[in-house]
Amino acid sequence: MPSSGHRLRDVEHHPLLTENDNYDSASSSSPEADVADRVWFIRDGCGMICAVVTWLLVVYADFVVTFVMLLPSKDFWYSVVNGVVFNCLAVLALSSHLRTMLTDPGAVPKGNATKEYMESLQLKPGEVIYKCPKCCCIKPERAHHCSICKRCIRKMDHHCPWVNNCVGEKNQRFFVLFTMYVALASVHALVLCGLQFVACVRGQWTECSDFSPPVTVILLIFLCLEGLLFFTFTAVMFGTQIHSICNDETEIERLKSEKPTWERRLRWEGMKSVFGGPPSLLWMNPFVGFRFRRLQTRSRKGGPEFSV
């Protein structure tokens, strides 16, 4: 798009538009104008299958913990305390998963590379801005294009099929909470499995469960394997995310060895920018900022997300 005051380049990397020069999508007449008021959902077959599998595995773990280990126990308070703790962790994990999956990760509005918008930026003569040739948008600093979401995402860390969404500027906190609560629930399940095995061996598998001994063994072994795999994966992801936040560097930026052109927010400043505000228990709450939105069916050709 020619202009006498600045140059526009169709490139993928090293954008010069800063985050403070946000495109005002509310003033746009495009279908993306009301993106803040819509539920975000990616229609990707692999991602949707992975998300459903994640939920089924958590539900399976809750079933084994509740009906195989806790309800048959003769210790009332042991069952109540562990049941409440595990189910709370499961609910918080699934809630964090939903918030990660259904929250706009920071998508840049499509087609905002217009003459009117570029003039509104009041660019200096000779200043270069960059346009994504795939979604025809002006790329803010630290934005990257996701081939699955088919959008440019602000501070895109990576695309995770298990949450069927990108992890970016607006939903990273929920992804961190998801990995943390799944890791905690996995540790709790593994501890309960160990105690259950000990109780069953001492009782010669007669009264430790309402299920037959072979079924009980199979259920417990599968839960142990699931707990080990889930804990390993989520613990590594949780540590990686915290490291990235504290260093103000996304996984893509680290892999590409991009030199920072922005003012880094290190350690607590980075944590505050992601979780919002000073340290508090609200950081652990995946329901913060949640509000119900009315679904509205809208016919739309192309694009990976549902318009609601």
Automatic annotation (TrEMBL):
A GO biological-process term: negative regulation of catabolic process
EC number per UniProt: 2.3.1.225
Catalytic activity: L-cysteinyl-[protein] + hexadecanoyl-CoA = S-hexadecanoyl-L-cysteinyl-[protein] + CoA
GO cellular component: Golgi apparatus; membrane; nucleoplasm
Topological type in the membrane: Multi-pass membrane protein
Keyword Repeat included in the entry's annotation: no
Leader sequence residues: none
Main enzyme class: transferase
GO molecular function: protein-cysteine S-palmitoyltransferase activity
Domain Palmitoyltransferase DHHC positions: 131-257
InterPro entries: Palmitoyltrfase_DHHC, PFA4/ZDH16/20/ERF2-like
Keywords: Acyltransferase, Membrane, Transferase, Transmembrane, Transmembrane helix
Segments traversing the membrane: 48-70, 76-94, 174-197, 217-238
A Pfam family hit: DHHC
Subcellular location: Membrane
Family statement drawn from the similarity comment of this UniProt entry: Belongs to the DHHC palmitoyltransferase family.
Entry domain remark: The DHHC domain is required for palmitoyltransferase activity.
UniProt-recorded name of the protein: Palmitoyltransferase
Organism: Physeter macrocephalus (Sperm whale)
